[in-house]
Every structure is written in structure tokens, then in C-alpha cells.
């Protein structure tokens, strides 16, 4: 018997919900619809209480130690790339970054804050381990090193770290949620802000979006934004290097080169 049958019984109709782990399912019976997941983080309960993810209905611990969570299945849609410029996105991200409850929970779960130095150190070790000697990658890492003093930030918040438009859900009642929190970290909010702005919003509109978030666009923030965007691009390059995907590697080299050109105009 599968774990979801142990929890719900055989009268529920179960369908896979996709995802990388294969541990998420939709369950339906007599008009009731649930989203089930195995071994979600305890963080989920706080996210639900804060209204950041769809409501948590119940949590059950299995005999083998697995924890099953059930949430209301959201009736709505994923955001489109063009939706990301909305003030509702800025406002929800601000709420997340300012939440002391989320921050305290991640600390209780043992998450240590990420610093620019530690993240860059991890990248450098990965590049050295893979023996990558790519001129654009070398140039990018040199710039990241050079700018380290400029990107230090005293603000440490809960960052989602994957603010792709597919992870934002809008309900039928226009309630916005941000899902898929497996990669959450304690870090500089510019990690989330930077990726979102760079990939979804014209730079000429950054100031307006940041106004909705509650920040002023200045030189230091712009430097932090591009620093983390460049870092994420190198991380993506390394991921595809491990997959030996030549086309994607070439795409990311071009992206990184483009980001470097942008950064050269900041100073």
C-alpha cells in the first residue's frame, strides 16, 4: 500500500502533482481537493500561518517517521512572466523578507546565514574541483572577488532563492502565494530581488517596482543585485557543466558575458 493510501484510504482519487521528488500528489473525493506532500519542512506550518502558501489542513506522522502534509488545493493559476512586475509580487516578497516568524523558524531548523564570502568560496571550490578554465567564468569570479567589500549587507532575511514565475500562484480570489520552499535560505534579500528584477523587469522600471517593495534604488543596491545575478548565472553554468549539456553551457556563457558588460557600466 502506498503512503497516501495509508493516510487517506482507498476512496480518494490520487494523481501525481509532478515535481522533482515524486513525493507530491493531488487527492480528490466528493468535491474535496487536497495537495499532499511527503516530508515537507516544518517550515510549511509557519508559511501557512503567514498566508504565504495555501492553507495547511493537517499534518500526520507515519510509523516509519515520514511526515505527510495536506494543503487545500489551490484553484487558480501560475503567474506569467509579464505578471511579475505587479505590485502584489513586490508586496508579498517584502512581507516574506520582513517576517520575523519565518526567520526564527529557519534559525530553529539550523539554517546558518549565507554571506557573500561563503557563497563565493563555494563557487570557487566547485570551479576548481571541476577544473574549469573558461575565460568568461574566470573573469566573472575575479569581478565577484573584487566587489566583495561593496556587497556586504547587515540585513539577513528569509530568501526563497527560486522566485521563478512558476512558483507564484494566484487564486480565484486574487490571493497571491509563493510555493516550493525547499531551497529557502537566510541571506541578503538582494538574492531574491536581483533575480526577479533581472529576469522579469526592464531596468528602466526597477525603481518603480522597488518603490512598491519599499526600497530606494541606489548604487549600492544595484551593485548587490548584479553581484547575486552573476553568482546565480555561474551556479547555473556549473549545474549544466555537471549535466554535460553543451548548448546550455554556451547559453550561460553568453548570459554571463552580458551580465559582465552590464556590470562594467555600474562603476
UniProtKB/TrEMBL annotation:
Annotated Aminoglycoside phosphotransferase domain residues: 17-214
Gene3D superfamilies, per database record: 3.90.1200.10
Name by which UniProt lists this protein: Thiamine kinase-like enzyme
Amino acid at each position: 500500500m502506498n503512503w497516501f493510501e495509508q493516510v487517506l484510504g482507498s476512496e480518494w482519487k490520487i494523481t501525481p502533482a509532478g515535481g522533482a521528488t515524486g513525493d507530491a500528489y493531488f487527492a480528490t473525493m466528493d468535491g474535496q481537493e487536497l495537495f499532499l506532500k511527503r516530508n515537507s519542512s516544518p517550515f510549511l506550518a509557519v508559511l501557512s500561518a503567514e498566508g504565504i502558501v495555501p492553507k495547511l489542513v493537517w499534518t500526520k506522522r507515519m510509523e516509519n517517521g515520514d511526515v505527510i502534509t495536506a494543503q487545500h488545493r489551490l484553484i487558480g493559476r501560475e503567474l506569467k512572466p509579464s505578471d511579475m512586475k505587479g505590485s502584489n509580487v513586490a508586496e508579498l516578497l517584502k512581507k516574506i523578507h520582513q517576517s520575523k516568524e519565518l526567520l526564527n523558524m529557519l534559525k530553529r531548523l539550523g539554517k546558518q546565514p549565507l554571506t557573500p564570502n561563503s557563497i563565493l568560496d563555494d563557487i570557487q571550490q566547485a570551479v576548481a574541483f571541476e577544473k574549469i578554465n573558461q575565460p568568461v567564468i574566470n573573469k566573472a569570479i575575479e569581478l565577484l572577488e573584487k566587489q566583495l567589500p561593496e556587497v556586504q549587507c547587515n540585513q539577513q532575511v528569509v530568501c526563497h532563492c527560486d522566485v521563478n514565475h512558476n512558483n507564484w500562484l494566484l487564486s480565484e480570489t486574487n490571493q497571491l502565494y509563493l510555493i516550493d520552499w525547499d531551497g529557502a535560505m537566510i541571506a541578503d534579500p538582494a538574492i531574491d530581488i536581483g533575480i526577479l528584477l533581472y529576469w522579469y523587469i526592464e531596468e528602466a522600471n526597477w525603481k518603480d517596482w522597488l518603490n512598491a517593495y519599499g526600497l530606494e534604488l541606489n548604487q549600492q543596491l544595484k551593485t548587490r543585485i548584479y553581484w547575486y545575478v552573476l553568482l546565480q548565472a555561474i551556479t547555473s553554468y556549473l549545474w549544466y557543466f555537471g549535466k554535460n549539456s553543451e548548448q546550455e553551457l554556451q547559453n550561460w556563457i553568453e548570459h554571463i558575458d552580458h551580465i559582465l558588460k552590464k556590470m562594467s557600466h555600474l562603476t
